[in-house]
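Weekly modeling sync, notes
Attendees: S.R. (lead), two postdocs, one rotation student

Agenda item 3: backlog of single-chain predictions. S.R. asked that every request posted to the team notebook include the full sequence so nobody has to chase files. The rotation student volunteered to paste the first one in as an example of the format we agreed on. Action items at the bottom.

Example entry:
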Amino acid sequence: MRPLRYFLLLLMIGLGTQCLALAQSDDEKRLSTTKDVMEEFAHGALASVRERFSADLKDSVSESDLKGARDELTGVAGSFQAQISQTTRTVQGAPIYVSKSQFEHYKVELKLMFDDSNRITYFRIAPVSDVSPESMEASARAITDLLGQQQFKEVSTRFNDQMKEAMPGDRLEASWMHVMMHLGPFKNIKVARKDPEFDRVDVRCAFENGPMIVRIAFDPSGEIAGLWMLPAETEKDSQI
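Predicted structure, as returned to the notebook:
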């Protein structure tokens, strides 16, 4: 029986090695595709980019949509200069393939997900900040503390142009007062955590009658690009 057991052991090792090699091959292929898609998108070969999409993604994203996204990106980040890296990240158990590139004004990340046939099922491209997570969390804390002190004009000075138009100081004040009508006076900040994928921070706040999340998104220059006041779960059930 010993030779048979030895043979079965070798077979199991062989199959395991083959599966590992296939997984590595898929990763390498997807990283290579991510690099190619970044080059195609940066140089305007949008039909080639879209040809790599799954059927569902093609249905929801037209070539005109891609052109609009490219025009918007270059309007903010400037012209493409060079790719920096291709990496894999795992978000909620799913692999995301990332190409980071240097544009004229900012760094830009392209994020892709693939189906089993290596067709693209998720496409996102946007400028990213060079600010460290720790610095971003500190900024979000400071901004939330200003809200707690009702320094709405000071918070508004940190908005980018789009936010200044979308949320003027009086609207910000009204939103905060609405929260206090339900939760009572602001007490303190419990914790601030940066999202691992996006340039935004969730700040958990304590009010007299319960918790709330202040979510602050930053643009690549460090100005506030979004601010939300969100209901929070009880602390024992929450990740923040």
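Discussion: group reviewed the output briefly. The radius of gyration is 23 Å.
Action items: rotation student to repeat for the remaining queue; S.R. to check formatting next week.
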